[in-house]
Amino acid sequence: MGKIEEGYSLEQHVEGQSRHLDAPELGLDLAREMEELRQGAPFWTNGHSAKTLVKYTDLRVVLMAFKSGARLGQHGTVGQISLQVLAGRVRLVLEGQQFELSKGGLFALGSSVPHDVEAIEESAVLLTIAWPQVGVASHP
């Protein structure tokens, strides 16, 4: 399977076909996607790598792979997020608290909550971001 082009391309080439990241239906093999991330240069040079799997106007799904000890550093996201650990163990640090998540663990964060992610061991994490829609009332 090919890699997503740099930037914000909505198309990915898959075995001679193209797959649109904003198609109404998308089916993915996460184990295969994780292995491809681990084989890429950013994983080995930066300690982590990420690949956008789904890219709708109000939703993103991003697969991230981390070498042991790699971290993202403190940051926040405009949308609400969930982090699901697919492999390994990660430490999530927010507001002075630490949470350790292992395979199968899920953590949700509200919009703009500052947090840091660090891999305790080689890990894969599925990040889901729900972008706020302009002009749409939120649920109480």
Short description:
The chain has 140 residues and is mainly beta.
CATH topology: Jelly Rolls
The CATH class turns out to be Mainly Beta
Name given to the CATH homologous superfamily? Jelly Rolls
Tell me, rounded to a whole number, the average pLDDT.
82
The level of helicity is: 10-25%
Report the portion of residues in β strands: 35-45%
User: End-to-end distance, in Å?
Assistant: 42 Å
**Uncertain stretches of 5 or more adjacent residues:** 1-18
* Secondary structure category: mainly beta
Helix segment count? 2
CATH architecture: Sandwich
Can you describe what's shown?
The chain is mostly beta strands. It has a single domain (11-130), classed as Jelly Rolls. 11% of the residues lie in helices and 43% in strands. The strands form 3 sheets. The protein has a 5-stranded antiparallel β-sheet. The chain is globular and about 35 Å long. The chain starts with 10 loop residues before the first strand and ends in a 10-residue tail after the last strand. 14% of the residues are buried. This is Cupin domain-containing protein. InterPro entries: RmlC-like_jellyroll (IPR014710), RmlC_Cupin_sf (IPR011051).
